[in-house]
Amino acid sequence: TQAPVNVTVTGAAGQIGYALLFRIASGQLLGQDQPVRLRLLEIPQAVKAAEGTALELEDGAFPLLAGIDIVDDAKQAFDGTNVALLVGARPRTKGMERGDLLEANGGIFKPQGEAINAGAADDVKILVVGNPANTNALIAQAHAPDVPAERFTAMTRLDHNRALAQLAKKLGTPVSDIKKMTIWGNHSATQYPDIFNAEVKGGSAAEAVNDQNWLENEFIPRVAKRGAEIIEARGASSAASAANAAIDHVHDWVNGTPEGDWVSMGVPSDGSYGVPEGLISSFPVVCRGGAYEIVQGLEINDFSRSRIDASVGELTEERDAVRKLGLI
Ligand code: NDP
């Protein structure tokens, strides 16, 4: 068998962590022949809860789980890490201004970026889940100058999966018939799920839908506000589907995307599609050999252009705000 891969999960005692860790241990993150060693990072007051989760992981008797370490220190958490899932973040609480939220997250993602820079393995891949994910990823990246910038990614896969599911429902077709969905921009209410480049059974998805009213007034807001719909229904946030999307994101990054399809990832812009270079924005990407590439040459119609510009404008504002705070 292969040597274990080190996977670090921050905020491991949280809701998403609880749904995520068992799937990593069972081999769904990296593959059924790849042992994993888990490193769980928590804040000191949540270490005990993380230890409780570790007892349950032990009780899973997972053949691929080579070990679990629980730490409250970022340097230890990222030492030798190959895959870093940054889930823990400071949630926005009532009355909190955006500046306060960004500053609180700067206090988390700056030291984590520094620790990744200092100790992570050369092949480290980083996925930021904790919100505001795109800008948190930007902060971490800014403090890891020795790590190739493109290794820092933010999760928009849950939005991507939500968009696939809603479109499949509208067309009365299985999700597997739909390819080339794209989420553009920020993982926020301004995100733009684009069906104009999507395909259903090889034909244009937008033509199959042929309903601009549904697109503008049902599909896009529903995908963007799905988190709130789930909190309303469940009385708790969408932790299991978020964990599922994190698994999908890393799995495809490591193992590749299927031929003739792509996925959405928040990645540093190279200037493609007019997105300012360096912003961590969601794009359509294909993954091959452990690396990803932004899909080039897609047609962007006027409707899509204005939606992408709005979301990218928000990302630019977030970047300027963290710059002003001295976080990047
Ligand atoms: P969750 O596990 O539910 O969520 C964690 C983060 O993921 C939040 O920032 C949340 O953002 C974000 N997120 C992204 N997508 C989703 C989604 N679809 N649904 C829900 N959340 C989503 O939070 P908990 O409060 O249960 O757990 C957080 C844990 O992180 C705690 O145990 C805390 O101690 C820990 N923590 C650890 C840190 C560290 O390791 N250094 C630092 C800070 C916290 P949003 O709130 O916007 O939904």
From TrEMBL:
Keywords: NAD, Oxidoreductase, Tricarboxylic acid cycle. Gene3D superfamilies: Lactate dehydrogenase/glycoside hydrolase, family 4, C-terminal (3.90.110.10), NAD(P)-binding Rossmann-like Domain (3.40.50.720). Residues 156-321 form the Lactate/malate dehydrogenase C-terminal domain. One of its GO terms (biological process) is tricarboxylic acid cycle. InterPro entries: L-lactate/malate_DH, Lactate/malate_DH_C, Lactate/malate_DH_N, Lactate_DH/Glyco_Ohase_4_C, Malate_DH_AS, Malate_DH_type2, NAD(P)-bd_dom_sf. GO terms for molecular function: L-malate dehydrogenase (NAD+) activity. The active site is at H187 (proton acceptor). Its EC number is 1.1.1.37. Pfam families: Ldh_1_C, Ldh_1_N. It catalyses: (S)-malate + NAD(+) = oxaloacetate + NADH + H(+). Transmembrane segments: none annotated. Substrate binds at R92, R98, N131, R162. Belongs to the LDH/MDH superfamily. MDH type 2 family. NCBIfam families: MalateDH-SF1, PRK05442.1. Catalyzes the reversible oxidation of malate to oxaloacetate. This is Malate dehydrogenase. It comes from Saccharomonospora piscinae.
